[in-house]
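Newbie here. two chains, one complex. Structure please?
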Amino acid sequence: MTGRFGTAVLGTGLVAAVASTLLWLRVALLGVPARPARVATGATLAAAGAAVVALEVALIGHDFGVRYVAENGARDVPLYFTVTSLWAALDGSLLLWLVILAGCALLLALRRDERAGLLRPWAMAVIGAVTVFFFALTFFAANPFTTVDPAPADGPGPNPLLRDHAAMGLHPPVLYAGYIGLVVPFGYALAALLAGRADRVSVAVLRRWTLVAWSLLTAGIVLGAWWSYAVLGWGGYWAWDPVENASLLPWLTATALLHTLLARRVAPGATGLSAWSVALAGSTFLLVLLGTFLTRSGAVASVHAFTASPLGPMLLGFVLLAAAAVLGLAVWRSGAFRSAAPGGPLLARDSALLGNAVLMVVLTAVVLTGTLFPLLAQAVRGSRAAVGPGYFNRAALPVALVVLLLMALAPFLRPDRAPDARALRLPAAAGLGTAAVVGLLSRPGLTALAAFALAASVLAGLIQSTVAKAAAAKPRAAAAKAAVAEAAAGKAAVATAAVTTAAVATAAAGNAGVANDAVATAGAEATGAWRRGARRLLASAGLLAHAGFAILAVGAAASSVYTVASERQVTVGQEVHAGGVTVRLLGVERGARGGGMVARLRLAVAGGGTMEPSLRYYPARDMTVSVPAIRSGPARDVYATVLGAAEDGTGATVRLAVNPLVGLVWLGGATAAAGGLLAAAGRVVARRRGVRPARVDRRPAAVGSA
Amino acid sequence: MTPRRARLLVAAVAVAAAALLVAAGMQGTLTFYRTPAEVLHDPAPAGQRVRLGGTVVPGSLRSEGGRTRFLLRDGAAEITVEQSASLPGTVREGQDAVVEGVLDAHGVFRSDTVMAKHGNEYRPAGPGEAADGGAAR
């Protein structure tokens, strides 16, 4: 019953999507009122929503006559993970995809005409075409509602990796929202090509959607990294897996897109888009589609990949078709969106923003090559090859370091001149000081050392410029306060460098106490400066994203260089040591758990506390999952996993790792995403109050500074 | 320099940089998939990392002193694999496994990474499995 309803709803959605595409096309071509088109868009969302509700009803009601439930449901799965198993496998996740896609379309369709730009009808037609394809894909090739006869009494449940962590309810929807939200910039870019023009309002809509989608994508990627760290039990958070790369690639081009959209704002007299922005918005969603193909076709070997499915050829066809359409349109309209050649000296604002875009495109090319190489090698030479993390670390990290360097300059960029060398003294000193201290205390290697130094100068520069701006914002006592601000800025920047250095140095030495003291002292000094700058910081919240990436860089570099791990086979009573941490095996409990088996270790940590990593076996999926136990602290995480447990419960193989500063990765990612969202919100607030953003040429170059 | 030439220069530098990074990055970081037969007949240059896939021969899995030895079979060819760390509980006799490492001079494959292959990862259970409640195969 639910099955038939679901199939009918999917069919209705397909029809509604076709209708909405045609109706919006009619609006674009004939200029007729958009009301019927809006209704069709609303009907599309209603159909997608009804399909999701139907599948949830079937999942929660254990209706094993529905194929998706028979394959992914089970009676012993807790309600939360039954609900989230909607996106635990291919067919159901397409429904989530559809609902988000249709939701984006409706949000855009409901905007008032004067605030949606002249390009909206074209953009809606493009989004409609994408929606038609995904409805057709779901309806014809991956319908989760087909019936199973006779219905089984129980199912195998969702993949065990997807029913152990609360992030299951958060990571996929957030990632999807960011991923699919990029369809709106794509729609507007194609609309600009189709119409051969652009207007200010359209560009503003494009920019805001990019900003929000970028923030969600950032949050989704970092949540995924955290989940990988907390669930997969291999000890790391980023493996350059094809599926991880699939989410990173559009993120890189979207970052470049954001920066090109900023460059346009300063070009005097420019009203339209630059060719760069159009190309980047187009390729960003093409990369989203390519990523979808890679992850859903079984084309690449990956821990996340869904196995081979009939969707592969259809998706590949659509990717190629979309790429051909974008390329054809771009050639047809070449010259319509002439990019203003950045004038002025090197390292003036516009050339730096262009430099960022070039770097991001290079980074995209490097990551894309590594991701597609196994496919190409197999097609050309017939040999199967894997590209390991070594490639990405060697080829992508140097580019990332140059990006950090540019980020350090960002607060000081000016529209027509190179940055003031005097303003750069402090960040430079902070960076060099950090490099000297960290380099003397430990041998982290050149890449990590450069990352620490550059991150320190990014943070120092951000604080210096924020404090200076906060002081300049008070007009009366400006002159008197300028000197004070200068001094405060210096103090704060030095404090930042000290925090970075102290934290890193401590992580290297494995001594948490000193780091905490240093952080506390430096933090107290910095607080006053932060408070004064807070208001200005909100105004240019995009710079917060820069701070987030500097923090992330410190965490990533420290946790990759200073991690200490050891692996030992121990019997009860024996100890494992790693990085100054000692754990003793107290016992192994074996037991049954929801039809599966579980071996839970009790480890006593020297200095108090226990950790309980476990090994779970799921017979329905014939799969063993090693669930790590993590003790997180500000300076380091202690991370224990079970690699194997003796049958008689007398011993086990334990991996114990000490990961310094890994928490900074999550903190930095969250800060970056928050920066993006604040920048988007700041824009909305400014518009509501009818305030035109201040002249841009006094603004720092940042992601989405208002 | 005209804007057009400047733009071409930027593009050329970017392409060159990307090509250089890709070429440098690929040096020694590629791992090729081989079957036991291919490795035995055509040993890769010493020290080259290889990913080896096959079935764990029943009755060959032995672990002593933190080391694990087993035979990996593919059709007719068999190769001895020695794994320095103890295996994760996921590799069992008769199942497929992929190991990564280097072939030593004695024809023993020294592996440092074992990846158990799960044929049913994300794959919908077959009709038979679904009908009998998804019991283990």
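Moderator note: Chain A touches chain B through 58 residues (CB under 8 Å). Chain A is about 60% helix and 10% strand. Thread marked as resolved.
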